[in-house]
Write a structure and sequence with these properties.
The chain is elongated. α1 packs across α2, α4 packs parallel to α7 and α7 packs across α8. It contains nine helices and two strands, in the order ααααααββααα. Strands 1-2 form a two-stranded antiparallel ribbon. The protein has a domain of about 140 residues: Tetracycline Repressor, domain 2, CATH 1.10.357. By secondary structure, the protein is an all-alpha fold. The mean pLDDT is about 85.
Length: about 210
């Protein structure tokens, strides 16, 4: 494993009875059912019996794959993080010549947030949940920091910023972007997506311009 790679999250906190031959398709059905229910009305109101029913399995089968709602939610975050990283990677790769790759990445991020509003807002509240690699929010940040680093290094050539400055810029950008995305979802009657994009672009651009001009 690369020294910069984040270890995979293992959300299980206590031993549980497992199926002798785990069926990945059953687990995916449970995750898909949980995702649909959380999108419809939020993870808080999601019940395990509903997840099992929608997935077409018994509640007993549910507990062969997950300890409970916290374990299920952690697994959903792992799944969402993987899907979001893939989408951001594709957005970066598809950036037309001469266009701002950061804006394409931000658009892809806001698209994903918009599609998963209830789950995203719940994550902002419950992201401090402890796992085997620390709190859930820090784990997700570390994943996305890996993807943001090549963009920051492209915008800040070697010699223009120290390693600490790059790291802090990545963390600041991720933190502000996540916070403003949540603020946008909670205030869509006053705040537009373009407002978020403009302020983030201005803030990040000003910092990068300052560091490059030294």
């Amino acid at each position: 494993m690369d020294e910069n790679e984040v270890k995979p999250l293992k959300p299980t906190k206590r031993p549980r009875r497992k199926p002798r031959t785990p069926n990945p398709e059953v687990r995916e059905r449970l995750l898909a059912a949980a995702n649909d229910l959380s999108t419809e009305r939020g993870p808080t109101d999601m019940r395990i019996d509903e997840v099992a029913e929608r997935a077409g399995v018994s509640v007993g089968t549910f507990y062969l794959y997950f300890d409970g709602k916290d374990d299920l939610f952690t697994s959903l975050v792992v799944d969402h993080t993987a899907r979001l990283r893939e989408r951001l990677s594709k957005a970066m790769a598809a950036t037309p010549p001469g266009s701002d790759p950061g804006q394409h990445r931000l658009d892809a991020y806001l698209d994903f947030v918009d599609e998963n509003q209830q789950a995203f807002l719940y994550f902002l509240r419950a992201g401090s949940m402890e796992t085997n690699v620390g709190d859930l929010n820090s784990w997700a940040f570390a994943q996305h920091a890996l993807d943001a680093r090549p963009l920051i290094e492209m915008l800040l050539p070697v010699g223009k910023a120290s390693e600490i400055e790059r790291e802090l810029l990545i963390q600041a950008t991720l933190s502000v972007t996540q916070h403003l995305a949540g603020y946008w979802l909670r205030n869509q009657d006053r705040i537009t997506r373009e407002d978020i994009k403009q302020i983030l672009g201005t803030m990040t651009g000003a910092v990068i311009a300052h560091l490059n001009a030294r």
